[in-house]
Amino acid sequence: MNTLQNKRHNQFGIILIVLTVTVAVLGSIQSVRAEYGDLVLNEIAEKEGMPPAIFPHWFHRIRFRCKVCHADLGFKFKAGGSGINMLKIIDGEYCGACHNGEIAWSVENCNLCHSGKEGLKTQVHGSTLNKLVVPAKAKKKAKK
Questions:
Q1: Which of 11, 29, 63, 126 could, after both became Cys, cross-link 36 (CB 3.0–4.6 A)?
Q2: Does 103 reside within a domain?
Q3: Range list of H helices, the chain
Q4: Sequence-ordered list of residues with C-beta below 8 angstroms from that of 19, at least 6 positions apart, any chain
Q5: In terms of Cα–Cα distance, which of 103, 81, 80 is closest to 92?
Q6: Three-class SS of residue 50?
Q7: Residue 55 phi, psi (nearest 5)
Q8: How many domains does the chain have?
Q9: Distance (Å, rounded) from C-alpha 31 to C-alpha 51?
Q10: pTM score of the predicted model
Q11: What pLDDT digit, counting tens, does each position of 76-87 carry?
Q12: Where in the sequence is the domain holding 55, given as residue range(s)?
């Protein structure tokens, strides 16, 4: 092999290694997961054979005022407090007020919401409240 062929051969090898590493990294990345501030909804999902639903709270919050969902649509400010289920959503309540196929995608696109990993509990994902060594309520009782 001459010098030009060696150079091209080395360049091809480097490109092949970079592509292999890129494919390996991209293949290991989950397409959807809960991010900080997202709500994990799993009071009913896994009992019904579905993965937990992940609600991107901050994505919605930058587009709408709090009252749109929490006053107008009836979402409670407590995890698991609203009693959301698919029948209510299909009937246009809660998420179904917008996710009706006209304003936003419809309920037939299950995997867009039901994208959580099995076993995730209902919570605000990444919340510092979930990371406290002593829960906030216990701290208040201990001071008394």
A1: 126
A2: no
A3: 3-28, 57-61, 66-67, 86-90, 110-113, 136-143
A4: none
A5: 103
A6: coil
A7: -100, 115
A8: 1
A9: 14
A10: 0.61
A11: 887 778 888 999
A12: 39-81+111-127
